[in-house]
Amino acid sequence: MSTTLDSKVPSGPLDKKWDKHRGESKLVAPNNRSKFDIIVVGSGLAGASAAATLGELGYNVKCFCFQDSPRRAHSIAAQGGINAAKNYANDGDSVFRLFYDTIKGGDFRSREANVHRLAAISLNIIDQCVAQGVPFAREYGGLLANRSFGGVQVSRTFYARGQTGQQLLLGAYQALEHQIAAATVKMYSRTEMLDLVLVEGHAKGIVVRDLVTGEISSHAADAVVLATGGYGNVFYLSTNAKGCNVTATWRAHKRGALFANPCLVQIHPTCIPVSGPYQAKLTLMSESLRNDGRVWVPKKKGEKGSPDQIPEAERDYYLERKYPSFGNLVPRDIASRNAKEVCDEGRGVGPSGLGVYLDFADAIHRLGENEIRERYGNLFDMYLNITNENAYKTPMRIYPAIHYVMGGLWVDYNLMSNIPGLYVLGEANFSDHGANRLGASALMQGLSDGYFVIPATIANYLATQLGKKVSADRSEFKATEKDVSSRIDRLLSIKGKKTVTTFHRELGLLVWDKCGMARDAQGLQEALQKIPAMRAEFWENVNVLGDGKEFNQALEHAGRVADFLEFAELMCLDALERNESCGCHFRLEHQTKEGEALRDDDNYCYVAAWEYAGQGARPNLIKEPLIFENVKLSQRSYK
Amino acid sequence: MNFSLKVWRQKDGGSPGAFKDYDAKNISAEASFLEMLDIVNEVLNERGEDPIAFDSDCREGICGTCSLVINGIPHGPGKVKTTCQLYMRRFKDGDTIWVEPFRAAAFPTVKDLVVDRGAFDRIIQAGGYIVVRTGSAPEANGLPVPKHDADLAMEAAACIGCGACVAACPNSSAMLFVSAKVSHLGLLPQGQAERDSRALHMVRKMDELGFGNCRNHYECEAVCPAEVSATFISRLNLDYAIAAAKEALAV
Question: Can you tell me the distance from the alpha carbon of A316 to that of A229, in angstroms, rounded to the nearest whole number?
């Protein structure tokens, strides 16, 4: 393995790179495309849009998802919106501004060329989705409506009520189903990828488990595309769906794919606070609520009175006070950290003291309850249903929760990992959001990667693979199948005393405490001591019932938690090694006088790409320096 | 709170199933129904008994994965949300609660409370889309859509594909599901080119897959977590009649 990484960013001016790259890329002729098999793992925005588009181009696509239908991938839960630099609001937006906001919002830890391409493609995404029938919100004149999101001062977010992710995913899913009907894509639902197969160093297939029958099988292809989402569930409690996991990317990592910036994890400021130890997941309240909601806590510590009894003068609208120009719309990392800070001071609200108010009284007074219902009705209903509180009458209580991960498998400008033939899209890769993702940018990235980037870049690899097809009968596949089966057998044979969920919950509490909103060297070292012990106990004392040849949800969960127990160590190691603060990665040792993240650009302006070095061995750190030619690195200021 | 559960257990699609009794003890009123089942499963696991299989994923009411019939009602009693959005505070301490899978010939049982709703995907494959070659779309604001039409299309598009409408219908009809997609796309100017063929193909596929006919029971609308209105079924009937007439007359 070489110790330098080639990001393959094209030369030339920033705004010409993508055009130039496409112009110089290899092509696969239409009559040759059906000779190539492509595996797409995952059917969220990135996976579904990639599978549909590659199928439409004429490739033979196999698409896999663990859900019972591709329509249920977790992209469906995204609420707020999708950014695009259309400048329909005529408020000074441009591709460059979206690019700049994203780079700055990411605290200067992403690759300029990738982010600029994303901003440019944002225009095509909206066109594509509207043509598919995505019912975006509209003005009375029939044209598209926009709203504003955190970290920016323009209105560039397109939305479909509070269900934007659902509508975009259904658009991609319908395109995918059209291709399935056209037989260009074969869909494998309730099928989980459990390993990657390499043939002579190239990604040539995967080993999967049929979750209904338990059958283990191999699928060979000319290239493998992973669009398997993020690893937020390493924290146990997160806004992710129950099934979200790190298994596909972690298995690929153990086969040689570099894992980049695993410590960069986004904590979303507006989630419903934890109510009890039995809780299975946390529910997000869209960031769009911060357009009209005002965040506050009592000025007095330990104030337990009901919010309507606390007079205006006794309230601290701390975001408006500290950040007058962005106010309640500061980026997510800053909003989250400030909520933690006021709660740590003892000014948090609600039964646990881990909550702040998000108050709509002023907005309702100004706009009327109907207008607020029109904008956020489904979110208010969801809040009422979960908490039994009416947010039209009393402020919502919110607290930060794990939401999205910026880290993921390392990819170059083509979205190919360091393993030839292995591509990684969407949240599963690391490339576009730096150390903090801005709201409404995940949907943009997933669809950019799937609809527009991969169809243009994958031919660069495939064109070199004509006549090199491999069959799943090869020994490499049989050996990998054996690895997968023996791991399952081992999990089932332990028959210990603790449930999988118990281990998952313990791991989650540990990493939330030591590698969550605030981190320091001591805590991370402690976590790095405890995780291997926890993992050893898991492999001696976990109890997984049933057998492998049947529908067995406990076994599915066990395999995922086993991978989280390995991955968590890398996440903490990366957090320890990144001895600076940046975006969501807040090291207590490195903060400005005002308590903001303090970067160290001289020493840490790089992507940390980790290479697996074997069980128990310290992984190798490979650095990709980040070069900024078009923006000036600065201390972020939202004041 | 404490509850007595009567839960449908079935090894797989080929085996007969039966109700089994379980106790759910010390459950917080703030726990969701699925969190209550998680707790029961942890107890079963500790006792070495096979946990109850049930589907869920996002647990925030949007993915459409969870699919339980609780006390005879798909997604459970009260103002309807998905199963995952049902909270134990809706029940009384000591209640006996019956838990079953969504039952329909077109939704075969996989295990216990888990069913196969792949038939919905096959209905979408028959025409539930607008064909747009990626990259060929015109400028998004080139085609204004009246706000009323866009809003109505959104109401239909809100369908989460859970299948509660089928489970609630005495005929196991999928008309609400089909009408939601046909209306969503048919209300938009973008969806006009394939409007007739979409209605014909989706309805015929629904029939072929073993879903029953609509007899205006309105049970579907009553249980729909996305509050999709049964008036979309009238719209579908009209679209289908026009398309079938055009087809018969070959115009």
Answer: 37
Residues of chain B with pLDDT below 50 are none
Verify that A481 and A359 share a domain, yes or no.
Answer: no
Q: What's the total number of domains in chain A?
A: 2
Same domain, A378 and A492: no
Domain boundary residue among A338, A368, A402?
Answer: A402
* Catalytic sites of A, residue numbers: 332
CB atoms within 10 A of CB A588: 13
* pLDDT exceeds cutoff 50 at A55: yes
Residue with the bigger pLDDT between A338 and A639: it is A338
Q: What is the pLDDT of residues A416-470, one digit of tens each?
A: 999 999 999 999 999 999 999 999 999 999 999 999 999 999 999 999 999 999 9
Q: Is the pTM of this model over 0.95?
A: yes
A393 and A495 fall within a common domain: no
- Is A543 contained in some domain? yes
Looking at A348, A374, A402, the residue that finishes a domain is A402
* CATH number of the domain to which A347 belongs: 3.90.700.10
Enter the tokens of residue B234: 């009238």
Contact A135 B153 (CB under 8 A): yes
Q: What is the nearest CA distance from A75 to chain B, expressed in angstroms?
A: 9
Instruction: State which residues form the domain around A327.
Output: 268-402
Give a yes or no: residue A196 inside a domain. Answer: no
Q: What's at A367, amino acid-wise?
A: L
- Among A72, A142, A279, the residue with its CB nearest the CB of B64 is A72
Sheet with A294-298: list strands edge to edge.
Answer: A265-271, A396-405, A356-359, A294-298, A315-316
Say whether both A604 and A483 belong to one domain. Answer: yes
Does B53 lie at the interface with A, CB-CB under 8 angstroms? yes
- Interchain pair B184, A142: CB under 8 A: no
**Per-residue pLDDT reduced to its tens digit, B131-183:** 999 999 999 999 999 999 999 999 999 999 999 999 999 999 999 999 999 99
* Residue A486 shares a structural domain with residue A573: yes
Q: What is the DSSP string of A325-336?
A: TTGGGS-HHHHH
Domain architecture of chain B: domains with CATH: 3-111 (3.10.20.30), 117-249 (1.10.1060.10)
Q: Would you state the pLDDT for residue A378?
A: 81
3-state secondary structure of A15: helix
| DSSP bridge partners of A83 | A157
Q: What is the ipTM of this complex?
A: 0.98
Continuous H helices in chain B: 33-46, 118-125, 147-157, 164-168, 175-186, 195-208, 219-223, 231-249
| Inter-residue contact A335 to A517 (CB < 8 Å) | no
Q: What is the mean pLDDT of residues A604-609?
A: 98
The distance of B246 to chain A (nearest Cα, Å) reads 24
pLDDT per residue over A56-111, tens digit each?
A: 999 999 999 999 999 999 999 998 899 999 999 999 999 999 999 999 999 999 99
Residue A500 belongs to a domain: yes
Residues 6+ apart with CB under 8 A from A511: A234, A235, A527, A568, A571, A572
Let me know if A2 is exposed, middle or buried by CB neighbors in 10 A (0-12, 13-18, 19+).
exposed
Residues A562-592: tens digit of each pLDDT: 999 999 999 999 999 999 999 999 999 999 9
Residues A602 and A507 placed together within one structural domain of the fold: yes
The overall average pLDDT reported for chain A is 96
The residues with which B224 forms a beta bridge, in sequence order, are none
> Would strands A259-260 and A223-226 be described as parallel, antiparallel, or unpaired?
unpaired
Angle at A466 between CA A461 and CA A467, to 5 degrees: 140
Strand residues in A67-190 grouped as ranges (E) = 82-83, 147-148, 155-158, 185-188
Among candidates B89, B129, B188 on the partner chain, residue whose Cβ is nearest the Cβ of A175 = B129
Question: Is the distance from CB of A232 to CB of A403 less than 8 angstroms?
Answer: yes
Q: Is residue A239 part of a domain?
A: no
